[in-house]
Amino acid sequence: MSKVLRLTVDVFNRLETNVAGFESPSEVTNRMIDSHEEYEVFQYVARAIISAKDFIDETGSREKTVLLHHPIEAIDKAMLFTKEVFPQYTITYSYESPGLNLKIVSK
Length: 107
Hints:
The protein contains three helices and three strands. The chain is an alpha+beta fold.
């Protein structure tokens, strides 16, 4: 079922500039929401790693739990990016709503 969403001309024009190929406004909006969720997950995880950095460097590892309510697809994509941003650590994770369990180990 579709719902009507009213946008100002400025917002619609911004949406239009983000079209990839023959996407509908709904597809563009969905892609943008996905991107936003991935970014939010990354922010939470990065903060957890940064806040534990001294402990990890001193002891070699740390386990942390981050509370999240995001789709697993967003979590998986964010974790791929997290591993690229923090190559000095081996990061494994499991998700059981609402907790993302991280194990961070120095390489």
